[in-house]
Design brief:
about 270 residues; alpha/beta; five-stranded parallel beta sheet; 10 helices; about 25% strand
Length: about 270
């Protein structure tokens, strides 16, 4: 019996147009009525889940910030959070100025990115970011200075690679400079930066421990590199047909693509 279903959003549960089908919602409701926890697991903040998900009556928890937090929507608070310390976060933002990236920093569910004094987001990020999360972005002329003024640690960074930049080279540079951080990628131009050891797999394991559920009773769905730890932590790893070859090497089974409601079809068979 599977008691937790942890699923990535973009490229996995959500279709390419960032919507979720009514049939998939009905399937999620069906498994939740059987006592299964539905656990969205995403690089987004808790504020950035699609409205179609946040409004579901059976949604209670979500893994956010690429595993940096687990949010309880019923109580409006984090039940688990592991931030990048403020001093280290400021070092990262200083170093990022030397790299071919556009930086964004997440703290307490909010997000600063490059922009100007009136909050307008720079054109590159506006054109590159997932459209439905832009409402949570605040553009600032100096991301480091704006973040420093908050006095907080960072839940994560998301760096947008400049056009033509070598993703593997930039990731290697960051890993060499900051071995105390976790560097991964969720797409061709996206780099995710979390505190060392923080990933979706660790967050899933901690959630299962809090609920008294063995991780062997969890199913994980994913499609990209930042899902690998979650796929490895779960009792059953399911990767989308549209997933990367690396993700597929971590799969126990494949399912149809996100645009074919692959998560729904797999759940119908598994639960």
């Amino acid at each position: 019996m599977y008691r937790v279903v942890a699923t990535d959003l973009d490229g996995t549960l959500l279709r390419s147009d960032k919507t979720i089908s009514a049939a998939t919602v009905a399937e999620l409701q069906r498994i939740c009525e059987k006592g299964v926890w539905f656990l969205p697991s995403t690089g987004r903040t808790h504020r950035e889940l699609p409205d179609a998900l946040k409004g579901l009556p059976f949604l209670r928890y979500a893994i956010c910030c690429n595993g940096g937090a687990v949010y309880d929507y019923a109580k409006g608070r984090y039940i688990y959070e592991e931030n990048i310390p403020r001093v280290l976060a400021l070092e990262v933002l200083t170093y990022a100025r030397e790299l071919p990236v556009y930086e964004s920093v997440v703290f307490n569910g909010e997000r600063f990115c490059r922009g100007d004094e009136d909050g307008t987001i720079c054109a590159y990020i506006r054109n590159s970011a997932v459209r439905d999360i832009l409402v949570n972005f605040t553009g600032v002329p100096d991301v480091r200075a704006a973040f420093a003024a908050t006095g907080m640690g960072a839940q994560k960074f998301l760096f947008y690679l400049d056009e033509g930049a070598d993703r593997e080279a930039v990731m290697g540079d960051l890993r060499e400079r900051f071995p105390q951080l976790e560097i991964s990628s969720s797409g061709p131009i996206f780099l995710e930066v979390n505190a060392k050891g923080v990933d979706k797999g660790k967050a899933l394991s901690n959630f299962c421990r809090m609920q008294g559920i063995p991780t062997a009773e969890a199913i994980a769905f994913g499609d990209a590199e930042n899902d690998l730890s979650m796929l490895d932590a779960a009792g059953l790893a399911v990767v989308m047909e549209n997933g990367t070859e690396e993700a597929k090497r971590h799969a126990d089974r494949l399912c149809p693509s996100n645009d074919e409601d692959g998560v729904r079809l797999a759940l119908r068979e598994l639960i």
